[in-house]
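User: Hi! I have a protein structure encoded as tokens and I'd like to know what sequence might fold into it. I'm fairly new to this, so please keep things simple.
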């Protein structure tokens, strides 16, 4: 869980450090009252080691959703749900990915 602007900046720096070419596409957005819901896709290349393991140069596409509450024209709160397991699997950093690689060879 990330709380506060500086913690969010650190998460963004880490993400950019691992995926410097990350590109988000908003697939759909709905707003009502002070809430906004966004369904998005991110395309990226794992070109940096900021996740704690060496870059793989693998290209990935992940999906996610963000819900945000806006207050006085600014982001007050946000909740993200995205395919972290798919991302980790795509760069080979989850146990079942290692098993799958062994089976493929």
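Assistant: Happy to help. Inverse folding works backwards from shape to sequence: for each of the 105 positions I chose a residue that suits the local structure. Here it is:
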């Amino acid at each position: 869980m990330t709380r506060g602007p500086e913690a969010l900046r650190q998460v963004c720096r880490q993400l950019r450090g691992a995926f410097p070419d990350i590109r988000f596409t908003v697939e759909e957005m709905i707003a009502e009252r002070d809430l906004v819901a966004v369904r998005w896709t991110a395309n990226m290349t794992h070109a940096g080691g900021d996740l704690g393991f060496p870059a793989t140069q693998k290209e990935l596409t992940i999906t996610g959703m963000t819900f945000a509450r806006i207050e006085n024209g600014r982001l007050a709160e946000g909740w993200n749900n995205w395919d972290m397991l798919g991302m980790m699997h795509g760069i080979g950093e989850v146990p079942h990915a290692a098993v799958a690689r062994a089976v493929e060879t």
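A useful reference point when you look it over: The longest helix spans residues 5-18. Feel free to ask if any position seems puzzling.
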